[in-house]
Amino acid sequence: MTVSYQLDVSSASALSFFRLLFRWKASIWKIVLKELFIWTALYLIIAFIYRTNYFMNENQKIIFEEVAYYCHEHMHFIPLTFILGFFVNIIVSRWSDVFINMGYIESQAIIIGNYVRGDDVETRLMRRAMVRYMCLSQALVYRDISVRVRKRFPTYESLIEAVIDEAGDNQS
């Protein structure tokens, strides 16, 4: 389930961003903390080995400096903007896939209207019931991702009551 940060973001204080950054539930720190500790530990180990005379002699330090300089100079062969372009492309394609796969009911409702033919009361009620169930499934999905829909339907019972009320209004 997603975690809503809208109340923290909507506040106008200068510290709201930092409060949001250090919030632990679904935090970015929770995701990168393990890797951050590993990289920090590796950096400290390499820095300790390089700076003490116990592990490396002067010849080895010169070789290490040459390797570090070589890596620094050749870092510009693959620009950071090029790598970030691939990253942004992946993120945008994921969001696009989410919205494409979300399941809007308009096209299915048109297909039901086309294939379930008939003008009698039973056929119309069957079409309405099918579209109502599709609306219910869409509301269940939106309930998990939208704060506005969550406030409108806080429980499953309120959602079912709204569907029953809608069915009762259409019957009369």
Hey, roughly how much beta strand do the residues contain?
Answer: under 5%
Mean pLDDT comes to 83
Q: Give the topology string: H per helix, E per strand.
A: HHHHHHHHH
Low-confidence stretches: none
Query: Percent helix among the residues?
Result: over 70%
Q: Main β-sheet, in a few words?
A: none
Describe this structure in words.
Helices cover 75% and strands 0% of the residues. With 172 residues, the protein is mainly alpha-helical. It has 2 domains: 6-77, no CATH class; 106-171, no CATH class. The model has no long low-confidence stretch (mean pLDDT 83).
Distinctive features:
membrane, 75% helix, mainly alpha, 172 residues, Bestrophin, transport, 2 domains
Briefly say what this structure is:
Forms chloride channels. Keywords: Cell membrane, Chloride, Chloride channel, Ion channel, Ion transport, Membrane, Transmembrane, Transmembrane helix, Transport. This protein has 9 helices and no strands.
Write the layout of secondary structure elements.
Elements (H helix, E strand, L loop, with lengths): L5 H5 L5 H6 L6 H24 L6 H16 L6 H21 L5 H10 L5 H25 L1 H6 L3 H16 L1
